[in-house]
Amino acid sequence: MTVRVVALALVLATCACSAPPPPSEAPAAGTTAGVPDAVPAPTAGRLFVTNETGGDISVVDVALRRVVATIPVGKRPRGIRLSPDGALVYVALSGSPLAPPGVDESKLPPPDKKADGIGVVSTKELRLLRIITAGSDPEQAALTADGRRLFVANEDIGQATAIDVEDGKVVATFAVGGEPEGVEMRPDGGAVYVTSEEDSQVSVIDVAGLKLLKSFKVGPRPRSTAFLPDSSRAYVTSENGGSIAVVDARTHTVLDTIKLTGELTRPMGVVTAPDGKRLFVSTGRGKSVIAIDTATDKPVASVEVGDRPWGIAISRDGAQIFTANGPSNDVSILDAATMRVTARVKVGERPWGVVFVP
């Protein structure tokens, strides 16, 4: 495996973007129990943003660039996924207390296991429909293309759980290493990748056979995975390594490592453009989004988007990118072609995950 150190300074000159605009303070519509009295029909899609400490989801109208609804869902909403038909979003909920690095966990309050689950939210009715039991401390989940099965990372027990969506039954569990986090379905639906922060590895689950195929090592504290649309390659972010592993997604072997520069660059979330030509990576403490050319696996642009961007999403047409910026309680909207921030929208408390709903 070769390691290619990429000098971002060479590309920053081509995207010496101005500071991102301040967050919009436009008020939301009048609400009753969190749902607006008159939610306008979206013209450019919506964002559903999980607010980890707020216990709710902010619904952002992309065209209006403001929150149009707030949906209470439960404790610590983090990972969020859209159903194939766009009718539902699935939200990972956890009753485990926040435990940032350096915290003495023995002094934390006990977890509220009754709060653990996957919340099912209607994107039309803008309300929580039900909660699926999904093992201990769910953090993220992936959904099969037919919408019938969920694969969930259970952070505190080093496990992944496969669940039948309709009846909520657990159909399989897998040991996937300590502190599993990112869960991503390969586009062809054949395999699921689960990252383990503690063990610096990725576990590969066979979707049809419900068996663990392989585990392989990547950089320290892997967070997320994105696949090329043709399922040929995977890209796994390593927060503490400041790097991205390039993986053969058929043989599940690391081909290369993209080493990013910058002392505070911490690769977190990652998404692929619909045409597969670019990869977009949020960098946490680095405050930026980096665009990578997948033909060369080299950065081609970088732009500051806000405080500690983590969750990242892309519009269906690939024209816009969205990041959830936790400490500043806002979402950034980027033009993907120019890599410029066009808006920042205030949402709830500690936004964590974001999905685009056409």
Describe the structure.
The chain has 358 residues and is mostly beta strands. It has a single domain, classed as Methylamine Dehydrogenase, Chain H (7 Propeller). It is built from one helix and 32 strands. The strands form eight sheets. It has a five-stranded mixed beta sheet with strand order 1-23-22-21-20, with no helix packed on it. Strand 20 and strand 21 (233-238) form a beta hairpin. The chain is globular and about 45 Å long. The N and C termini lie far apart (39 Å). Residues 5-16 and 26-33 have low confidence and may be disordered.
Which short descriptors sum up this protein?
358 residues, mainly beta, Methylamine Dehydrogenase, Chain H, 5-stranded mixed β-sheet, 1% helix, 50% strand, globular
Backbone shape: globular
Q: How big a fraction of the residues is strand?
A: over 45%
Q: Briefly note the CATH topology name.
A: Methylamine Dehydrogenase, Chain H
Output mean pLDDT: 91
Multimerization state:
single chain
DSSP helix fraction: under 10%
Side by side, the strands of the main sheet go: 1-23-22-21-20
Number of domains: 1
In CATH, what is the class? Answer: Mainly Beta
Overall SS class: mainly beta
CATH superfamily assignment?
A: YVTN repeat-like/Quinoprotein amine dehydrogenase
CATH A-level architecture: 7 Propeller
Low-confidence stretches: 5-16, 26-33
Let me know the number of strands. 32
From the alpha-carbon coordinates, what is the Rg to the nearest angstrom?
19 Å
Major beta sheet summary = 5 strands, mixed
Please count the helical segments: 1
**How far apart, in Å, are the first and last alpha carbons?**
39 Å
